[in-house]
Design a protein that fits this description.
It is built from four helices and seven strands; from the N terminus they run E-E-H-E-E-H-E-E-H-E-H. By secondary structure, the protein is an alpha+beta fold. Strands 5-6-4-7 form a four-stranded antiparallel beta sheet. It is elongated, with a radius of gyration of 21 Å. Strand 1 and strand 2 form a beta hairpin.
Length: 126
Amino acid sequence: MGYVTIGKGVSVHRADCPNVAYMSATPERILQASWADSDTASHAVDVEIEALDRSGLLQDVMGVCAEFKTSASSVTARVKRESALISLTLQISNLDHLHRVLAKLRTLRDVRNVYRVTKREARASG
């Protein structure tokens, strides 16, 4: 069940949680909650790949996405001198899925670095 807190959003508790007894005093703040089906839920995750530019690099990156059944909602590739920077927004189902995709991307020929971009990092570089 969900409970609307003051100033902290909604906290989620199991129905057998001892805190549920305290929540009963304010039933107007109690919400029904359930977990989304993990097979269908996905989250947008920004990823960047730094690599030596070469023919077929972007094709290899997209091949990894296809191998892991990972949709890319945004792809930007930039080349400066002989270095490539590929920015992707991937639809990721869970943390394990993300780790598997990143690990496979790191094995691609000429890839130097693969990392998740957080909002804080994006603001600092933008």
